[in-house]
Amino acid sequence: MRGVGVLFALLLSTSLAASERVKTVLVFVPEDGMVPSIADFTRSFHLTMLGERQKPVTVNIEYLDMGWFQGADYDRALHEFYRSKYREQRPEALVVFADACPFVLKLQQELWPQVPLLAVLNDKPLVEALPESAFIRGNWADLDVPGTVRMALRLLPSTRRVALVLGSSQRELAAWDFVESEVRGAAPDREFIGLRGLTLEQLRQRVHTLPEDTVVILVGFMQDAQGQSLVGRDVLTQLHAEGSPPIFSVHKTMLGSGIVGGALLDYELLGQQAAKRTLQLLKGAPLSSLPTGAFDTNLVAFDDRELQRWHIPDSRLPPGGRVFFREPGLWERYRWQVTVAVGAGLLQAVLILVLLVERRLRRVAQRLNAAVLDSLPGSVAILDRNGVVLRATPAPERPESLGGLPAGKLLAPGAAYLEAFREAARSGHPEVEGVASLLQDVLAGRASEGALEFRGFAPDRWLELRARRLDLPEGGAVAALVDVTARRRAELEARQARDERAHLERVSAVGELGVSIAHELNQPLAAILTNAETAQRLLQRSPTDMGLLREMLQDIIADDKRAGEVIRHMRALLKKEGAAEGTHDLNELVGQVVRLVGNDAQLRGAVLSLRLADTALRVRGDGVQLQQVVLNLIINALDAVGPCPPGERQVWVRTQRTDGHVELAVEDTGVGLSPEVQKRLFEPFFTTKPTGLGMGLSISRSILEVHQGRLQAESRPGRGTVFRCSLPAA
Fold first, then answer.
1. Which of 573, 591, 623 is the C-terminal boundary of a domain?
2. pTM of the model
3. Mind telling me which residue stretches traverse the membrane in this protein (predicted)?
4. Which residue ranges of the chain lie beneath pLDDT 50?
5. Distance (Å, rounded) from C-alpha 421 to C-alpha 419?
6. How far apart are CA 706 and CA 80, in angstroms?
7. Which of 333, 255, 258 has its CA nearest to residue 300?
8. Closest listed residue to residue 438, CA positions, set 494, 499, 473, 480
9. Residue 95 lies in a domain
10. Which of 483, 517, 536 is the last residue of a domain?
């Protein structure tokens, strides 16, 4: 018996736990879920139930589509469907909305006679018509048509006609007389226009042809006269167009789609209140304990865009009315920005006032020394202790008198004279660093005076700066810029003439042809000598390796032919004869040169890396001349890495195709190029090698220009130099 009692207790507790675990609420709504009012009501009801219910709950919502599907056959089919669907289920609460109430009352009597039913209806008479039962409780959410009409007349007092729009579904036709009486009662002294029994197109045309002093009250439009199912908000969108009269409604779901406003039923708020009363039922509260009367869910609201359209001032709005979609004003939207702008304006005004006072004081000081300054030679400026111009002579009529220096930064009152030279030194003019140092020493008192010549920014212009410290308590200095180009040019011309005569005496015996041959034939002649000496040693061996000897002789013949080709092509180039053109693979030309200098690179302890493009790079031109360019660049790169420690002598040769051109790049890790060397790199006879002739890069550039190409040099990141050759692709 004890075991049976324990088993019974377990079964009872399990049953009670199961009953408490999940409770079901069944909601019936008359329309489809795509109707905005139904969607707002059901969504709000469902979210409130799930959010405020502490225990599990299931909310089943049934959409009856009664506005779009009508007739006795549909009602019978719908009745049989739900009888079959819920015959074996018993919800804890029933909620029925509006016109679905008669249908659900029948279901309740047959399936759930003792399940509490909460009815949410449209007006008080419908609630009073409900059958008296302990399991039925009705509340209403009134569609305040009279309030909306009175509100429209308040906002538009010149209105003379009120048009009522209602659809042609059975429920809308049945409600017409009641709604018409409400409209007439709210506007007894206005003409009434009834818009019913129309197709959508007929309704649209009628509304757009209404007199100007008419307001439209849109209560609903579920079907038109042809039986076309519609959504009221979509109908409103078609009625609201340019030239249409002002439209009012009783549904908040239409706010923002074209209505001016009205006493609007908020279906989201209605869903929340219905859900909260249903939750009380799930907690065990009797149905009779729920509040009676109407839900407080109407909202007086307006669309600001429509108020602006119909020129309705805020003074006509009723107390407590809310305005939606109002664009914030300038101050509301940009309060912080306006505050900053006003503050900045005030600050700017203060700064301008200070500058005007300072300018006046400065002009007084300028008049005291204007006569003295104007009588001095050159461009003179009086500086304060920080190197700022207090007074200066006018800018010269010829800008070249300042050698390209910015007159606005040197001779304008208030200009930073010293900082102008510092900035010029930082921006690529190191020749003026000494000028800035001299000025700094004089202004700081480390020197009483000084003078310095320097090259101006303009080509071939020289200036002299003379600075003298002012013997004043506040310090300062007088700085004068004098153009000494004429004197400097005479000195340079005399020196250049002497240097050119000495150079011509050294190179006159050799000439341009000898220089080119000496530079370009060094490699093939060295190779001929090496192969000949090797062949001699092979002949002294016994037995003689005839195959190797034959190979050496072939190399000698090839190098000799190459030397002859170099001489012939260089003579043609110097005589300005046309080059022997042909189509060549740049990869192949570069590869031949790299094989030629490979041994030389090894002897120098350098690593020569070849990285050719994957595909052939066709170019048109003289192959021998192009190989001369490649050879010269590689030899220069090997010479450049010579001073580097072993292991750091790296030379890379690369080819690639870029935008209709082919490119050769020779990159080294050598000492690199100074700015002065880079400026003169391609000048004839200029060289940085102790034994160089200074013709290699000049000749290489000439060859590439003949081939419509170009040669340029740039510093390599870190250390070294990159030479780039670009040629048109064939």
1. 573
2. 0.47
3. 336-357
4. 1-19, 498-499, 501-517, 572-573, 575-579
5. 5
6. 99
7. 255
8. 480
9. yes
10. 483
